[in-house]
Write a structure and sequence with these properties.
Layout: E1 9-10, H1 12-16, E2 37-40, E3 55-56, E4 59-73, E5 76-79, E6 84-88, E7 94-109, H2 128-132, E8 138-139, H3 143-160
Length: 171
């Protein structure tokens, strides 16, 4: 097993430099000051489904709609299940062991996303969820809640992909 120092880490800026808004597009370069990125796995390069252990310097909320295999989080495999959410905290080791590529959404944001806009203070309790899901970093909501969350993701995606709407004030 690799030592933690040997496990590659990917930055938020790396991620935002490779976001594609629709199939066939070239990567769209976002302002690294923009507080989050929402995209679909179908639009991302194969690196988004990396099969080697790695970490990120940001947080991820992944909504899986299709695919087969497992998502290995902190060296524990979790089977891919449609309509499930996977939560990854900053620095958490993960990789994919897939027999069929996944589809769905990736919401990625740096630590300061939940900070106060006028200061450098980040409320630790805002990130507590990412550290308390340890034994269950994946969840499948009940149908009623799932419909609401998916509708919200679709609305965020629509606004995110519209350059006229993509502003801090919209958030």
């Amino acid at each position: 097993m690799k030592k933690c120092s040997e496990i590659p880490s990917h930055s938020y800026n790396e991620f935002i430099d490779n976001v594609i808004q629709s199939p066939g597009d070239l990567p769209h370069h976002f302002d690294p000051e923009f507080p989050f990125v929402l995209t679909r796995f179908e639009y991302m390069s194969d690196i988004a489904q990396a099969d080697y252990p790695h970490t990120h310097d940001s947080y991820e909320v992944l909504y899986i709609t299709a695919g087969e295999g497992s998502h290995v989080i902190d060296f524990k495999p979790y089977p891919i299940q449609p309509q499930s959410f996977h939560f990854l905290g900053k620095g958490q080791v993960h990789f994919w062991n897939l027999s069929k590529k996944i589809e769905g959404y990736a919401l990625v944001f740096p630590e300061d996303f939940l900070g106060f806009p006028t200061s450098d203070i980040v409320r630790a309790h805002d990130f507590a969820f990412f550290h308390s899901v340890g034994d269950a970093p994946c969840l499948t909501p009940k149908q009623g809640a799932l419909l609401k969350v998916v509708a919200l993701l679709e609305e965020i995606e629509q606004e995110f992909n519209d350059p006229r709407a993509r502003s801090i004030t919209v958030l």
